[in-house]
Amino acid sequence: MSTSITGSIVALVTPMQADGDIDWLQLDALVDWHIEQGTNAIVAVGTTGESATIDFDEHPRVIERVVKHAAGRVPVIAGSGGNATSEAIELTRNAEEVGADACLLVTPYYNKPTQEGLYQHYKAVADAVPIPQILYNVPGRTACDMHNDTVMRLADIDNVIGIKDATGDVARGAELIERCSGRMLVYSGDDPTAVELMLSGGKGSISVTANVVPGRLAAICAAAIAGDAETARRLDSEIAALHSQLFLESNPIPSKWALYRMGKIGPGIRLPLTVLAERYQKPLEETLQALDLLPA
Asked: Across 49-191, where does the E strand assignment appear?
């Protein structure tokens, strides 16, 4: 199924109750809603799913729950990165065991590996676990930037099938697409620039905004991948304010608050993240209202 992972790929929030406990029934409901709305694939326990505060026992349980509830209707990609290679291997092996279709592995954060260290890290995970793997470069969060030359080295590994480029640098992503020549898929990981990267040949968007407007994101991605620039840009312009406001504070603070206001999830979020500051609630609520997303 991994070869068909294209289009709108939601970086799914992990719904929680007010005390921070995972709300398993709301997680099921989110999976159903995304499939009904046309989301093409789901990332479980990525950054937006609060991977940094989901403990080691919960991690495979959330992935397994999403896999079982999706029941083959869409591919499920498991967040399984870590800043210790041994931990990333264990998380990736766990994800394969519970039935994930692919894994998304963030660059090792905090310890600032060299480019050779990045190559050896990803090669070790790919060699240890045969599941299809997607690289994830988000230097704004990790203080670690994987260069295009390193990505091209990793493209020679059979089960490294793609990269989520969250740099927001469309020219850099377009260069990578050109150099890849079909050897791996390039996905946007930056909502405001996703359309332009897809129009340059990217195969989808691993999206935060898709949490809130999954149907719109599915339509935008379909148009952009088909090369219909006019439609993709027009639809994207209608949610430009939402793209911006979902990053008023650190992701997933605004997206979880938006979904709470929409009645999709409870208010829970785990420290050190906190509920969206009051000064940001009104502008985000006004945008949700304008998009007709709030309950009557």
From this structure: 76-79, 102-106, 133-137, 160-165, 185-188
Spatial neighbors of 104 by CB under 8 A, at least 6 apart, are: 43, 46, 77, 78, 79, 80, 81, 133, 134, 136, 164, 206
Euclidean distance between CA atoms 169 and 192, whole angstroms: 11
Q: CA-CA distances (angstroms) from residue 17 to 87, 103, 111, 160?
A: 28, 27, 33, 36
25 band by pLDDT with thresholds 50, 70 and 90 = very high
**Active-site hit among 119, 136, 187, 260:** 136
Instruction: Clarify whether 136 is annotated catalytic.
Output: yes
Q: Active site includes 164?
A: yes
Contacts of 58 (CB under 8 A, 6+ apart): 22
For 2-228, CATH number out of 3.40.50.150, 3.90.226.10, 3.20.20.70, 3.40.718.10 equals 3.20.20.70
Strands 7-11 and 41-44: what pairing?
Answer: parallel
The candidate with the shortest Cα–Cα distance to 103, out of 123, 138, 83, 75, is: 75
Query: 10 and 45 in contact (C-beta within 8 Å)?
Result: no
In sequence order, the β-bridge partners of residue 22 are 16
DSSP structure class, residue 252: T
pLDDT digits (tens, 9 = 90+) for 278-292: 999 999 999 999 999
DSSP-assigned letter for residue 205: E
* Region of residue 156 (phi > 0: left; psi between -120 and 50: alpha; otherwise: beta): alpha
> How many angstroms separate the CA atoms of 29 and 88, rounded?
29
Per the confidence metrics, is the pTM higher than 0.85? yes
Q: Which of 164, 203, 256, 264 is catalytic?
A: 164
164: β partners: 136, 187
